[in-house]
Write a structure and sequence with these properties.
Helices cover 53% and strands 11% of the residues. By secondary structure, the chain is α/β, with parallel strands linked by helices. Strand 2 (79-84), helix 3 and strand 3 (105-109) form a beta-alpha-beta unit. The chain is globular. The structure holds NADP nicotinamide-adenine-dinucleotide phosphate.
Length: 318
């Protein structure tokens, strides 16, 4: 019934090889799904965030994924420093967190697209002397809609703002918070990347590249500072229902920020690099598998998809 390997044609051998890779990847993803969703919550394996320090600092904490992180950490008993641009949203979220979870809050108004180092000097002063155990580098900006690189003129701030908000803020917030963590040899940093980093993402080229930076930065910084007891994780979400994604209805592939962050938090301290959410892991692996078979074909398919999003975005602008 079974043939010897030598009896297969080259094409059959290649197909068998690819099928084996797919089955192994799928099985490992399935085992992780069962572990993180059905076993880990009962074993309580994720980090005791509270033991890292009194305060958690969350950037971009008044909406979406950042707000969900702030809430979940407050629920665990951490005091929260909320950082973002809009004072009214900061005050509203801080009040909600204080009243709901009974923890202390502090707000810092900051726009990470600001020029110069004055912003970070001010944040350093505001955080001086605080026992910070957790930093969630979440604030990020994206294109208003997928667009060709050269369609952004030099005067258009979109691309520069992405670099300042998605890259420079991550570097500078780590510089501010990490010395305290090194001193007490404890701390957790979660940098929010994106599935657009490992996957082809044409028409969001600068955004995807900025998130690739976040991935590499987290990985290497994590290796450098592991011996100081600091855990550094890069979480790379696929679509989540937020203002940035413009997705309004939750589905199995695009969860609410609350559901997404609940899942992502169970991976902190376990996985250094993760999508944080099993359906996103499946999707990324499928795209990467397609890419390993046909890099140009996969890029073409992604380009067609992004062009559709671009057309939709342009129509909405009219
Ligand atoms: N949603 C997704 O599908 C998705 C997928 C992959 C990765 N991500 C990443 O997840 C992170 C959060 O995204 P989200 O979807 O939750 O976004 P969101 O719902 O639009 O929330 C963004 C938050 O960041 C703050 N913010 C925006 N620009 C800022 C700036 N220049 N300086 C300081 N704060 C700023 C906003 O508050 P103010 O407006 O008051 O400043 C808000 O609190 C981002 O890094 C994003 O790249 C999201």
């Amino acid at each position: 019934m079974f043939k010897l390997l030598s009896e297969y044609t080259s094409l059959e051998k290649l197909s068998l090889f690819l099928l084996t890779i797919f089955v192994l990847k799928f099985t490992s993803a399935l085992i992780r799904l069962i572990y993180y969703n059905a076993i880990a919550p009962f074993l309580n394996t994720h980090i005791d965030f509270r033991s890292t320090g009194k305060w958690a600092v969350v950037t971009g904490s008044t909406d979406g994924i950042g707000k969900a992180y702030a809430e979940q950490l407050a629920k665990m008993g951490m005091a929260i420093v909320l950082i973002s641009r809009t004072e009214s949203k900061l005050e509203h979220t801080a009040k909600y967190i204080r009243n709901t979870y009974g923890v202390e809050t502090k707000i810092i108004i900051a726009d990470f697209t600001e020029e110069g180092s004055a912003l970070y000097s001010r944040i350093t002063k505001e955080l001086d002397g605080m026992d910070i155990g957790v930093l969630i580098n979440n604030a990020g900006q994206c294109y208003p809609h997928p667009e060709y690189f050269l369609n952004f003129t030099r005067d258009d701030p979109v691309l520069d703002n992405i670099v300042k908000c998605n890259i420079l803020s991550v570097i500078n917030m780590c510089r501010i918070v990490m010395p305290g963590m090194v001193k007490k040899r404890r701390g957790v940093i979660v940098n929010i990347g994106s599935a657009s980093a490992p996957c082809p993402c044409p028409l969001l080229t600068v955004y995807g590249s900025s998130k690739k930076f976040v991935e590499k930065f987290s990985e290497d910084l994590g290796t450098e500072y592991k011996r100081f007891g600091i855990i550094i994780q890069c979480v790379m979400p696929g679509y989540v229902v937020t203002k940035m994604s413009k997705i309004e209805k939750p589905s199995w592939i695009a969860p609410t920020p609350e559901k997404y962050v609940q899942s992502a938090l169970t991976t902190t301290g376990v996985e250094a690099l993760t999508t944080g959410y099993f359906p996103h892991t499946l999707l990324i692996n499928l795209i990467l598998f397609m890419k390993s078979i046909s890099p140009s074909g996969t890029s073409k398919v992604m380009m067609i998809g992004m062009q559709k999003y671009r057309n939709k975005g342009l129509k909405k602008k009219l």
